What we know:
Elements: H1 15-21, H2 60-70, E1 83-92, E2 111-120, E3 135-143, E4 146-153, H3 166-173, H4 189-195, H5 202-208, E5 223-224, E6 229-232, E7 238-247, H6 256-265, H7 269-279, E8 285-294, E9 320-329, H8 334-339, E10 352-353, H9 358-374, H10 456-463, H11 467-483, H12 487-500, H13 502-512, E11 565-569, H14 576-588, E12 592-597, E13 602-604, E14 610-612, E15 615-616, E16 627-630, H15 635-640, H16 643-654, E17 659-661, H17 665-672, E18 683-684, H18 689-698
Parallel strand pairs: 11-12, 11-16, 12-15, 16-17, 17-18
Antiparallel strand pairs: 1-2, 1-9, 2-3, 3-4, 5-7, 6-7, 6-10, 7-8, 8-9, 13-14
Helix pairs in contact: 3-4, 5-10, 11-13, 12-13, 16-17
This protein binds CIS-heme D hydroxychlorin gamma-spirolactone.
CIS-heme D hydroxychlorin gamma-spirolactone binds at residues 77-80, 83, 117, 119, 136, 138, 151-153, 158, 163, 166, 226-227, 308, 341-343, 359, 362-363, 366-367, 370.
Amino acid sequence: MKINEQEPFENGANPKVEQLGKYKVDHNGEFMTTNQGTKINDDQNSLKAGDRGPSLLEDFIFREKMTHFDHERIPERIVHARGSAAHGEFQLYKPMGKYTKAKFLNDTSIKTPVFVRFSTVQGSRGSTDLARDIRGFAVKFYTQEGNYDLVGNNTPVFFIQDAMKFPDLVHAVKPEPHNEIPQAASAHDTFWDFISLMPEAMHNIMWLMSDRAIPRTLRAMEGFGIHTFRFINDEGKSHFVKFHWKPLQGVLGLAWDEAQRLAGKDTDFHRRDLWEAIENGMYPEWELGVQIVPQEDEHKFPFDLLDPTKMIPEEMVPVEIIGKMTLNRNPDNFFAETEQVAFHPGHVVPGIDFTNDPLLQGRLFSYTDTQLSRLGGPNFHEIPINRAIPDVTNNQRDGIHRMQIPKGKVSYHPNSMGQGCPFQAMIKEGGFASFEERIDASKIRKRSQSFFDHFSQATLFYNSMTDHEKRHIQNAFSFELGKVQLVPIRQRMVDMLLEVDEDLAKKVADHLGLVPKKLPQPITGSIPADGNPDDHHSLKVKLPITEAPSVSMANKLPTNIKARRIAILTADGVDDDAFTRVKKQLCEMDAMVQIIAPRHGFVTTKSGEQYPVDDSLLTAASVVFDALYVAGGESVNTLLEHAGALHFVAEAYKHCKPIGADANGADLIKKVVPELKDAEDGVITNGDLDEFIGAIMLHRFWDREMNPLPA
Ligand code: HDD
């Protein structure tokens, strides 16, 4: 066993790294053994009666190897099966003692180890990263007081209001059960059938149809805890809190056509991107923000804080930035860490507590339950990645795969034979005590009337979009509903859109050859058998704001080009100065620069210098990159004749990416875009690198979509 050498903390005090180190193995220089430690002499041939004879049951080496192999797989997660994870640390900027007693939110000197898993929701473990889908954003904080899991998504709201509907939602969105089609896509009948009958989903659907659901990279996504939680301070006072993760890399999306092409060119693109950024030392960072609402303000909003389909717009309650998370180490083993990690919104520490959000309450049951079948029993907390930092001491015993060896006779409490150990901890000793909320109510299956505004925030979201963001939402609905086979489902959806925005409904309906109609009220599907339809009319509340600029990605562009992927397209004969200048400047700004040439090996500059090629025009694709630079000189003559180079430029242009070139390089761009305007936004043909870098920060020049190339 070996302690991990990659030590991310200066003072060397990362307790999680040390703990994981105890379980790591390195086979370097070791003999091969069976699982019982017996050295193996022949790992090539099974034991047989004669060299052409039957195999023998006696062969314990073969049997052990094969049995283990036969059981290598575990059930994938029912949702969020496809994921990628990384280790890191969280450091607080300012103590939050006024609101919470959680130690890791009070001491700015502590670096709390974290493990973060990003995921898609719909697809299987091996599905594409590039699906239009919500992304999971699950953070496990290994605090001194035990594990705290913030199990969020990259949207601030959810599809449904009550956990009772979660199995229905998942059954509807997953591949259809008769033929297991489609994989990693919501564009199919059962999903939209369900959604068209569930008006409460409309707000999250707007986020799903926006570019938030096709992130350019996992590093450029916001994260949200979604539910309203509670902070509890030392005096036992409660404040409501919503959690936000704000990426320092900006918030960036893909073009939909690009996402679909990228799914083929590099289906692991998001996983690879996260991995490479960390391997290259370009650690992604997120700031943690909180929106705090005093207990007494619970009913001051025109929506219910317990309703997970509603956000608190930042324009109404500002987000206070309180700390920073840095992801700085890739896992050593995908299965042991990323696959076996078990998150749970119910893993909390003193100072953080729940509210009565009915979605959250249901989650508190589901997550442990799912691990029992996924990880095979109740001891999954002993798997290294799931272990808490403090010692786990209680009277729980036995079960499949138990690792602890508890000594003594006593496994009950109270006891005298074990001197009363393990002790209960008083609140002042750090014992968790649930917030004492006064409840005076009848037992009833009912939803609060305050949950019945399903459209105001969907409209607010749409109103807050820029023109290109609106266009992308219209196109996304048109695409998704265009894939739906049953016309009545399409019709119900465009009718639903009429409640959100008339122009949106008309544009989508037009694409589908339909006319949106006023919805009958109430919408069927979400009403209990004996429910009074009059109780189920969607209410529309008046929000104090008509736009929330904070939800628009256009307002969240990065201020640097760190870890952005830039292709320098070139060939033999490239001008030395043009080539080295651009490469040097981009690398100095921490961009991930790759040299793409017609073939692998080296490019030889005009003066005879040789530079290694990172990828060839055959194996590379423009969709992998954020920007493209064509370095000039004689190399351009080769590129002008190369179909792959022309396609590379055309695709980058079509996907609205920044393109830079010097005078010769511009010839290539002009050949692809014959009607290139002199000063077209995002196409810099004068070799001005500062202008090119400025364009990379702007990410995309979406106006080009208005005059698309037929690429
Ligand atoms: Fe969930 C996994 C996020 C509602 C039941 N969920 C899971 C993961 C994330 C979320 C990020 C993957 C964790 C990982 O990487 O291992 N889920 C959410 C959010 C929700 C939400 C942000 C709403 C605010 N989930 C939700 C409900 C239920 C579940 C209402 C059931 C009542 N979720 C599960 C699950 C999963 C899961 C079936 C599958 C694998 C797992 O838990 O560990 O139990």
